[in-house]
Amino acid sequence: QICLSLVKLLFYLAHSPLGSIVLLDFQPRQFVMVDGNLKVTDMDDASTEELSCKEDNDCTLDFPTKSFPLKCSVAGKCEGINEKKNLFNAYRYFFTYLLPHSAPPALRPLLSDILNATGDLRYGINETLRAFEKVLHLYKSGLYLQKRPLLLKDYIPLKGFRAVEGEDYKCWPSYSHLGCLLSIHSAEEAAAICNSQLQCQSFIVTQHRTWTGRPLASFQSSWTDLIPDANAVVYIKRSAPSRERL
Q1: Could you please report the per-residue DSSP string of 7-21?
Q2: pLDDT band at 240 (very low <50, low <70, confident <90, very high)
Q3: How far apart are CA 152 and CA 160, in angstroms?
Q4: Which region is the signal sequence (predicted)?
Q5: 153 in helix, strand or coil?
Q6: Domains plus CATH for the chain?
Q7: Whose CA is closest to 4, among 103, 85, 82?
Q8: Cα 96 to Cα 98: distance, rounded to the nearest angstrom
Q9: 5 three-class SS
Q10: Beta-bridge partners for 16
Q11: What are the phi and psi torsion angles at 79 (to 5°)?
């Protein structure tokens, strides 16, 4: 969410009515999340000026660990230097820390492609935004789940109950520090996640949803502590130990 919001912001800056705007003091502390959108807190160090040049050799974009040769335009300006400076800063301050860690395994290669392409500045802001929107579409639609075995049949649905909230085993990247609370597309995906975790014996799809509209599922190491809830369904693993079988 943070990275996509940042890319949308940089897309606007690259195509603003004032021209391409560069953020000269590009640091994480210069941004804040407001209602799920990333905002710049200080525009004092923003500029629309692009580096003047006479030849391509005048247009090297330098960072502490990398340098990028750019083209000198007919107008005597380094082509796209503001856009590329913003994008590489987004890569080194945000993408490298946030993109590799929390996506479903099937989507990680696509995010890795974005990471590598922006890190080498092979993508401009237009291509980067399109790549992010493709991943978001796959994530929200569940298309990344195609051609997977059906595992929900290995679970017994117990309607009208939910688990008591409390500490349980933890997983990454959980939405709760007390247990294992993950975003899912469907109960079928939750069953696959539960099967992949040795501690998991049951799960419940909650009424809570993430910013993409996906429900959250709570994964549990047992199903013995249940309370009535007319709107809930607990899914219990058929292979649970006999003392915990329904």
Answers
A1: HHHHHHHHTBTTB--
A2: low
A3: 18
A4: 1-19
A5: helix
A6: 1-144 (1.10.510), 152-237 (3.50.4.10)
A7: 103
A8: 6
A9: helix
A10: 19
A11: -65, 125
Residue for token pair 């800063």: 89
- Can you say how many angstroms the Cα of residue 55 is from the centroid of all Cα atoms in its chain? 40
**Cα–Cα distance for residue pair 218/222, rounded to 1 Å:** 12
Q: What is the token pair recorded at 196?
A: 């992949």
Q: Which amino acid is at 124?
A: G
Q: Which residue is it, tokens 């959980």?
A: 174
**pTM, rounded to two decimals:** 0.84
Q: Is the pLDDT of residue 131 over 90?
A: yes
Q: Which two tokens stand for residue 148?
A: 């997977």
32-62: per-residue pLDDT in tens?
999 888 998 877 789 999 899 999 999 999 9
> Model confidence over 169-227: pLDDT tens digits?
999 889 888 899 999 999 999 999 999 999 999 999 988 899 999 999 999 988 777 88
| Catalytic, out of 25, 42, 58, 120 | 25
Q: Where are the alpha helices (DSSP H) in 120-218?
A: 125-141, 187-195
Question: Could you write out the three-class secondary structure of 93-126?
Answer: HHHHHHCCCCCCHHHHHHHHHHHHHHHCCCCCHH
Residue 15 is encoded by which pair of tokens? 């195509």
User: CA triplet 44, 84, 15: central angle to 5 degrees?
Assistant: 70
Residue 222 amino acid letter: S
Please tell me the chain's helix, strand, coil percentages from 3-state DSSP, rounded to the nearest 5: 35, 25, 40
Residue 35 annotated to the active site = no
DSSP assignment string, 156-171: EEEEEEEEPPS-----
Phi/psi at 6 (nearest 5 deg)?
A: -65, -40
For residue 131, what are its two tokens?
Answer: 């790549």
